[in-house]
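Exercise (ungraded).
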Amino acid sequence: MKFAKLLQSSFQEQQIPEEWAEHAIQYKALKKCLSQVVDELKLIGLEKETLGILLKWQDQINKNQSPAVSYTFEGDLQGFAPKIILKVDKASGLPVSAILNNYKIEELDEKTVGEPPEVIVSTDGPEYQRIEIKLKSDTRFFHMLRSEVADLQRLQKTQVEHFHGSISILAQELASTTNPYDGRKSKLDMTVWRSVFELYLEASIFFSTHERDLGTRTAEQADAQLTWFKNKLNEQKYSDQFKRKKNLLILKSFLDMNDQILKCLYFQKLNETAVRKILKKFDKRTALSSKDQFDDFFEYNGKYVESVSRTICFEISNELIRTIPQIDDYICMICSSIAYKPIKLACQHLFCLRCLVKLRRMNEDKCPLCRQSVVKAADARNLDTDLMKYMKLYFPRETKIKQRENDDEIMKEKFQQNGLDKPCCIM
Amino acid sequence: MSFPKRIIKEAERIVSDPVPGIIAKPHEDNLRFFDVIIDGPEGSPFEGGHFKLELFLPEEYPMMAPKVRFLTKVYHPNIDKVGRICLDVLKNNWSPALQIRTVLLSIQSLLESPNPDDPLANDVAEAWKEDSSKAIATAKEWTNKYAK
């Protein structure tokens, strides 16, 4: 399938919104413009084959000499023009690769019809002349591409701002519907949300934190992860567990937003492919190397997917997920469960009371995280009472379980001390 | 058999999010036993080798370090004939904040940078100090012979 068609059908398949599609790279129009470039080059005798030979020849010459043909962008981002620079032998009027016998500069003017290219002739050393050719169609092609890319970048900025807005709104709503001071329903819904976000983080939809594939995901990978997340949500029936209807609506908005982000990734990816394809086509049909020039000159790196995933991911976890405190931020590094009751050592590292008691029993004085000698000096004053209250409020279930486990363990130890843990026997 | 939360969590994570070049598989019937394979680090004489180890979490874990031993023969100054490893974090420098994955990473980097000044296998350390290029050649030979 032709790429222009493929692009069109992909937009339909991904249900890209109309207002985005308007900003898409106009691949067809660019292709048409490219044909004009090819025609114009042919008219002045610099068709693909000729340029190919000239460019090839330049590789063999002395590195200090300026090349027989070069292709660069001149000017600034607004008023730039691509130009072909030829080096021509003064005496013969032939390009320095004298192997080309069918081309002379005088012929340039004769051959040109329609819009004449801008030609500047200057001297390049005693033997050579330097001829700069600015093709009208070439300039048009790159201005078109440039404005399309700029347009896309503006759209992308709007998209990111839009997502940013949605995230903030969701975070505010969530904060109000899960406020633990607000009664039992809110408290219960907070725990449901916690499980939802835990799953969401595990899915790491747009950005992987796994060691094997650290970094941003492609649109396809993100798609698969998002599907996984949704399936899991259904399996666990989280949406049925909400006590407040409002939370169900927030979940729906959250999922919609993720769909939108994914769509945005697909859209931008398709456009990046379009840019790459058209530049590749340009190089193939003209033998000029525009791809690197373009990337350098316009600082175009096609890393859109990456930057958006990063920004949005950061905002989701920073603004939205943080609304619901996650257990991972409050666990004891020793036992991997909630650091309750929390003891803050002099080095500011946090552990649960039980683990510190065990450490002390082993006569260990060093903090497990920073190895400072602070364990033995810790006493009742190191209990972080504010944090303890906070944990009880936000993690009611976890703190209760932990307390019970601690009590059980203490009991067991007491029995052991008294030798009562052995199976009994009848004397 | 029930296991502490920490052991369950660690076992889960090392399977779901493995360290590159390291595979650790807990025994199905006992989460305290792990079968480990560490790939020889690139650029070291152990490159291309897959080294089998066994790892065991003692009752006191994480207050005490895991017990780790090479099952594959290795020519290395800090690993002896029966696979015991001389590594500070497995002994005095153990901290309960360290984990299975950090220990295995340390072992991986020990393969990368042998330390003949703190030897466990005396003969290997001597050989390493006397003629390191010859010792490296032997290590490569052993890797080809035993770790492929």
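Further reading is listed at the end of the chapter. For now, observe: DSSP finds four helices and four strands in chain B. The radius of gyration of chain B is 16 Å.
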